[in-house]
Specification:
The complex is a heterodimer of chains A (300) and B (279). Chain A is mainly alpha-helical and 300 residues long. Chain A is built from 12 helices and 2 strands; from the N terminus they run αββααααααααααα. Chain A has a single domain (65-299), classed as MetI-like (MetI-like fold, Orthogonal Bundle). The longest helix of chain B is centred in the first third of the chain and has 35 residues, at 2-36. Classes of the chains: A mainly alpha (300), B mainly alpha (279). Chains A and B meet through helix 1, helix 3, helix 4, helix 5 and helix 6 of A and helix 1, helix 4, helix 5, helix 6 and helix 7 of B.
């Protein structure tokens, strides 16, 4: 028989957990479950209106609609154009910073600035830089002769996508650099010495030592950056509001518009579900690959 | 001899290229600072005047009159500080349970907590709106604090859990034998020892709420508007775009995060890279 003091003792950890679990339950768990249910319903907002089960109709409607498919395309473009550029530039910067042995924190402090400021501020800043008549980007491109008249960056579909990608790269590159810099410091000098003894030149050493050793960090960076970029709302919304002609209307902005402008809560929930499912799938693939790498690494 | 010259060249190249890229990286911000320090007529001329002709602090003075900007700042401060404190209290308590007790469901719960760290905000936007509305917390400071606390707890708990586990358990047993209660031990011994993690985690929760846009944009209308959402209505209008004041306000708003990041950069770099780099 359990005495009351023993029961109390067994319950102790749950007392400590309770406040956090209540908040997580209300803010995260309940909404996730509810979102799943809502995505299968036609939700009526008006008083007295009852929600009606519609099965997968919301999903079918979305997948058949041109505007949802175009927002998926915008999300993929935004993420998978930004990501490689940010990775390559971030790696280059990490290699440069790795040569700095003294006063490195002074340099990395600069790196932290784009990462520290709010996405909203980054958005306004780049909107201003890309301003057609007062912006520095057009001024610079005109003076070096790359364009002959001001480009209305944020008013044309292609250039607007380019502009939000530039802003996004600016924001994420520092994070990538910091991660890769930490990875570079973990590579033992012996590997380089051995490669040098074998007669490998700088490029060969980079290709055969540095890159393979960074594989794991690059994988982690790729995963996190993908998640963050696919979820971006603030930066794009401030710069373009998803326009022009929905060219930069990524999935999170579409979810917002379907639910809070068209008031189709069920359909919005279905779009949100697909976003979540996509990110879960990406995470699952990456985590599997990374863990397999790690296990193989341990065997060697 | 040859290798020494090579090493010298490498070092100089590192500093040169490193300095250059650091400057290029903050160049956009310098342009923003310069915009905020010049009269509106000068910054809205075509072609742009790159080097300032006149410097004025008018934007920094006028922005307070232009809009209820002081109300937005107050809201941001209240929400972010409350979130930091509450998230800290709840996460310390939860992390203590995970680090120091064995109980049924521990692994599963911790895994759920860790996974919810990655949850995209927009994926639960719609049901969360209903939750907040049903609680009567739309457009309220309390509602925003509740949401941000929920989004801060997972990372805070996970980081503190790691830190607490590294502190020897014998310490706790000795304290308990000496007649210390668990709460006293937590407050007087464990927390002072884990001070760096507590500071890092509190800062994280503060910045999360300070910079957040999506939820503030959807769940507030007037009473609980924070700076990220207030900037637009305050300085950008149909007829006048007060770029000088917009950027003066943006820079004031960006000072706390930049100051926190730069002064605590060691923790952030550690926190960011923890687990990602092979040991």
């Amino acid at each position: 028989m359990i005495t009351s003091s023993r029961l109390h003792k067994q319950l102790t950890p749950y007392y400590f957990l309770l406040p956090a679990l209540v908040v997580l339950g209300v803010i995260i768990l309940w909404p996730i479950l509810n979102n799943l249910l809502m995505s299968l319903q036609k939700v009526r907002l008006l008083k007295g209106g009852e929600s009606e089960w519609v099965g997968l109709a919301n999903y079918a409607k979305l997948l058949g609609s041109a505007s949802f498919n175009s927002s998926v395309g915008s999300s993929l473009k935004f993420t998978f154009i930004s990501l490689p550029i940010a990775l390559v530039l971030g790696l280059a910067l990490a290699l440069v910073f790795n040569e700095i042995k003294k006063h490195r924190p002074v340099f990395t402090a600069f790196l932290l600035v784009p990462w520290a400021i709010a996405p909203v501020v980054t958005g306004y800043m780049w909107r201003w830089l890309f301003h057609d008549s007062f912006g520095l980007v057009n001024y610079f491109l005109l003076s070096v002769g790359l364009i002959d008249s001001n480009v209305p960056w944020l008013a044309q579909p292609g250039p607007a996508m380019g502009a939000v990608v530039v802003a996004n790269v600016w924001r994420f590159m520092p994070y990538i650099t910091i991660m890769l810099l930490a990875g570079l410091q973990g590579i033992s000098g012996e590997l380089y010495e051995a490669a040098q003894v074998d007669g490998a030149n700088v490029l060969q050493r980079f290709w055969n030592v540095t890159l393979p050793q960074l594989r794991h960090v690059i994988g982690v960076v790729f995963l996190f950056a993908t998640i963050w970029m696919v979820n971006d709302f603030g930066l794009i919304f401030i710069m373009t509001e998803g326009g022009p002609a929905k060219a930069t209307q990524v999935v999170p902005i579409t979810v917002y518009r379907i639910a809070f402008e068209n008031l189709q809560l069920g359909r919005g929930a279905a779009a949100a579900m697909m976003l979540l499912a996509f990110l879960l799938a990406v995470s699952a693939v990456f985590i599997r690959v990374l863990f397999r790498e790690r296990r193989r690494g341990d065997e060697n | 001899m040859k290798t020494r010259t090579q090493a010298m060249i490498r070092a100089w190249l590192g500093y040169g290229l490193g300095g250059l890229s650091a400057i290029l990286l903050v160049l956009p911000l310098i342009w923003v600072v310069s915009t905020s320090l010049r009269p509106l007529s000068e910054v809205t001329s075509t072609p742009p005047i790159v080097f300032p002709r006149s410097i004025t602090f008018n934007a920094y003075v006028d922005l307070w009159a232009a809009a209820p900007f002081d109300a937005y700042i107050l809201n941001s401060i209240l929400i972010s500080l409350s979130t930091a404190l509450i998230a800290l209290a709840f996460s310390i308590s939860a992390a203590y349970a995970f680090a120091r007790f064995r109980f049924p469901g521990a692994t599963l719960l911790l895994m759920l907590v860790v996974m919810s760290q990655m949850l995209p905000g927009s994926s639960i936007l719609i049901p969360l709106f209903q939750v907040i509305r049903n609680l009567g917390l739309l457009d309220s400071l309390a509602g925003m604090v509740l949401i941000y606390t929920g989004f801060a707890i997972p990372f805070c708990t996970w980081l503190l859990n790691g830190y607490f586990r590294a502190i020897p358990e014998e310490l706790e047993q000795a304290a308990l034998i000496d007649g210390c209660s668990r709460l006293q031990f937590l407050w007087r011994i464990l927390l002072p020892l884990a001070a760096p993690a507590v500071v890092a985690v509190g800062t994280f929760a503060f910045l999360l709420s300070w910079n957040e846009f999506l939820f503030a944009f959807v769940f507030t209308k007037s009473k609980a508007l924070t700076i990220p959402v207030g900037l637009r209505s305050a300085f950008l209008g149909q007829y006048v775009n007060k770029y000088d004041q917009l950027f003066a306000a943006s820079l004031i708003f960006s000072l706390p995060p930049i100051a926190l990041f730069v002064s605590l950069q060691r923790f952030f770099v550690q926190g960011l890279t923890a687990g990602a780099v092979k040991e």
